[in-house]
Design goal:
This protein is of the alpha/beta class and about 170 residues long. It has one domain (about 1-165): Flavodoxin domain (Rossmann fold, 3-Layer(aba) Sandwich). About 40% of the residues lie in helices and about 20% in strands. The protein has a 5-stranded parallel sheet with strand order 2-1-3-4-5, sandwiched between helices. Helix 1 packs across helix 6 (about 145-165). The longest helix is centred in the C-terminal third of the chain and has 20 residues, at about 145-165. It starts with a strand and ends with a helix. The site of flavin mononucleotide has 21 residues, from helix 1, strand 4 and helix 3. Flavin mononucleotide binds near residues 54 and 56.
């Protein structure tokens, strides 16, 4: 099985998780690529797609990448977000990502928190649309941490096992 770990990251949080996922896959044929470099997904069996949650959703460049993944591929989504892990605000983005995958198989999702610069939080708190996730993001200043990265490594391995069993 050939695996692609494709990620989009602006401030480095999602990139850290992508690298942990890549490591967690162990000795399998694999590549790690930034979505900014427009990687081709056709030659892979499993595609991990990682993104930062933006405005409760998937950044446009990642949406385009997901839509271009050929039918029949197995996909696993991972994301970082300032809001609480498992919270509705982050989960909404996963629902949206999954809604873009007609005729592809979604293996699973993994989310963890990612720090947001204090200056940005300050600005966002003034905007009613961003106020709630920005409030939650105040306690993510150390994420992703080693615990998050270890979870990501384990999750990647389980996704691989699942893909092999299907
Ligand atoms: C423009 C913008 C919008 C964001 N919107 C959300 C959001 O709706 N919910 C949330 O939990 N975090 C949001 N965040 C925080 C990021 O998802 C978080 O900091 C993430 O870890 C950044 O990942 P990166 O370093 O890979 O870019 C937003 C960040 C930016 C820059």
């Amino acid at each position: 099985m050939k695996v692609l770990v494709a990620y989009y990251s602006q401030s480095g949080n999602t990139e850290k998780v992508a690298k942990a996922i890549y490591d967690g896959l162990g000795f399998v044929e694999k590549d790690l690529a930034s979505i900014k470099d427009k990687p081709r997904s056709r030659k892979y069996d499993i595609i991990f797609v990682g993104f930062p949650v933006h405005n409760h959703s998937v950044p446009a460049v990642v949406e385009t990448f997901i839509k271009r993944i050929p039918e029949g591929k197995k996909i696993a989504f991972f994301a970082t977000h300032g809001s609480l892990r498992g919270g509705e605000l982050a989960i909404t983005a996963f629902y949206y990502a999954v809604s873009l995958t007609a005729k592809k198989q979604v293996l699973g999702t993994f989310g963890c928190r990612g720090k947001v610069k204090p200056k940005m939080i300050e600005t966002l708190m003034k905007n009613p649309q961003d106020k709630f996730w920005a409030l939650e993001a105040q306690s993510a200043s150390l994420n992703p941490d080693e615990g998050d990265l270890e979870d990501a490594r384990k999750w990647a391995w389980w996704m691989l096992m699942k893909a092999r069993a299907l």
